[in-house]
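Why this split exists: single-chain examples teach little about how molecules sit against one another. For that reason, every record in the complexes split bundles all components of an assembly together and asks for one structure covering all of them. Below is a record exactly as it appears in the raw files.
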Amino acid sequence: MTESVNRPQRAAFADRTSIVGIGESEYTRWGGIKDRSEYQLCLEAITRAAADAGIDVKDIDGFCSYGYERHEPVQVQVALGIPEMRFSNLVWGAGGGACAGAVMNAALAVHAGICKYVVVYRSICQGQYERYGHYRERPAGGQYMAPFGLMSPAQMVALTFRRHMHVYGSTAEQLSHVALACREHALRNPRAVRYGQPLTLEQHRSARVIADPFRLHDCCLETDGACALIVTSNERARDGRAPPVRILAAAQASNKGWGLGPMGSHNMPIEDYPSVNSKALARALFDMAGIAPKDIDCAQIYDAFTGIVIMALEDFGICAPGEGGPFVAAGNLLWPHGKLPSNTSGGLLSEGYVHGLNLVTEGVRQMRGTSTSQVADARTCLVTSGGAQAHKSALILAN
Amino acid sequence: MSGNYLPDGVPSPHPTQDDYPFWDYCKEHELRIQQCAACNTFRHPPRPVCGECGHFTWNWTAVSGLGTVFSYTIINHSVHPALKESLPYNVAVVLLDGVGDVRLVSNVIDAAPEQMRIGLPVELVWQDLPDGMALPRFRKGGAA
Ligand SMILES: [Zn+2]
């Protein structure tokens, strides 16, 4: 495989910016928030993030989001009375694959000297708008899927993981260990939608099939909620209210030939098909951070579907190809004794689905030492973004 | 009732300026894949330039219609109202013979869930939609 000519060796903004504030609404099952609009939740999350950072919300001068975010920066700006917007950015792509990319763009805007404080936000009320598990018209590539009944992200990723089972011998049984680890962590997190709802292996394995090999608990929640975080320079971060969390590395990538990947015609390269298209991303990320996969202390791995986690562990070099299934089956995602405690808030499977941004806020908590499943002495956290969307992104946070 | 693998209410293809010849050939029950006129590389879905050599010229090359199941899923949960009575149904990614690594997302219309497997040989069948479109689907083929 040829190396990208643009391979970002030690990109100039490596370890120059920090996350200094996080804010969230409550998370509920879709339809659970009826008293306030999705727009209001967005504004509440941003207000809380600014308060957490110890800044006036009017100090925010840049705005980044991704996916299907509905509340554009000028609407946010006018509502919050922010005097001047200097940077606005929405990462391309239909899904959560762009989430860490939005954080990357915030870091770039700060590092370039354009902005002092950039907010990254995502507000998503699946009860007020559409449920992500339902059919939606996909103008790009949709005519190669929907007429054949391929309509939801669960179905799209089921195809890539079925191939992974064929190539590597991974099993549907291994998937249950991803779901159970997330649920165990959610039981310790009062914010989690699945708080107080234990899940057993037997319940997982007897639940109804959604898209074989994925059963009900292999598929993420559909959630109402909002999340925001504030990025600033490492210098300004020292004056903040909370301990700064350094953005050691941030990257976006897609490999050759992927196009829309699983959200399109499924013509990605044959050797790469049973993956989450994050091998080039992982190279860029670890090159930028100057550390290796073995140096990662905990992870928040995009878990829209359990199979993604197994394939991501392999793409990011935590496991060799084909070893992701045995790795999760050995309990290695579990706090506190697993080799890589992951999705320590419960993840998208059991905390809530805020399109991946709640994985970043949990990564920040781990680096602050305030997670409800705190990994002892954690110095680094990998946060990955993206499931069915081909375009992927990721962060390495540090304290 | 059309007798098709999936019912009539399922969304039909909406051809674009870039891919209407593919679908026009489908209406004629011809499966043709875009092939670079300069370096002969096949590509799908249709797009205006060859990613290998950069040429903007192409041909529509007829294919045999034989292939194998590259991956599949059995869907037991409907996400569209038209499919509620069609469960379970399969979705297959079919690797076509003779056109490089080009695959089609489709269905194997005569395979029970327990008969689906990666490597299953399949052959093309056409199913006409009420709006005049036709979809390339597959049935179990000979030995492979
Ligand atoms: Zn060519």
